[in-house]
Fold this sequence. Notes:
The protein is of the alpha+beta class. It contains six helices and 14 strands. The protein is globular. The protein starts with a strand and ends with a strand. This is Transglutaminase N-terminal domain-containing protein.
Amino acid sequence: xxxxxxxxxxxxxxxxxxxxxxxxxxxxxxxxxxxxxxxxxxxxxxxxxxxxxxxxxxxxxxxxxxxxxxxxxxxxxxxxxxxxxxxxxxxxxxxxxxxxxxxxxxxxxxxxxxxxxxxxxxxxxxxxxxxxxxxxxxxxxxxxxxxxxxxxxxxxxxxxxxxxxxxxxxxxxxxxxxxxxxxxxxxxxxxxxxxxxxxxxxxxxxxxxxxxxxxxxxxxxxxxxxxxxxxxxxxxxxxxxxxxxxxxxxxxxxxxxxxxxxxxxxxxxxxxxxxxxxxxxxxxxxx
Length: 287
């Protein structure tokens, strides 16, 4: 399926801003499940863009606006072809998966996705929640499916309950949140049990059930990729209790939200700022 994504970010400043330094991580990946056909990034006021890949392989556009400005607008337009992923059966028996996860070689290779972070710290609250849900004899993939379902049922979607800095500890107290909280909780439980997991940013096409376009307010999305030992990374979306398919467009991944913030930066100025973000994901008619 071919999808067109338009993502606009606008900062409006009460007073003039200068020396604005920014990073943008809004470039769709090309992998076995999706191909990025086209990608455009434009900035107002106009400025040169520097492009590079960060430690996790995410494409970054960096830029600086030195002159005084009262508004900064970043527009990104992408066209991506996606498809359903046909996953093979797990390559290892459940016991072999557990044995592989206990080796030093495995730990050293995936250590970034096994250690806790500020968002996913192993607090007493997390330990109490995660301890009963450890992998058993069924294998990591069925276990991850069940964890995806359990977190979906345990949390209530509430966009007014949390903020961008909410930790797993706070999420377990509130039992509410948005996709970021659902993803961070699943990451924390996986890592607590020694299963590598990474935070994924992207988009979720949410047209009506027939797959058509619909007019409503849209936003970027977050989910989790869990490593099935011996097989590879599989995407799970605990917010919607599904595995990722053609409706999902991946931008990047990291240890948690902090690694893949879509737009972040600093500027020189004394006034307040107002942020506006608009996202539109639509199907494109095939040729």
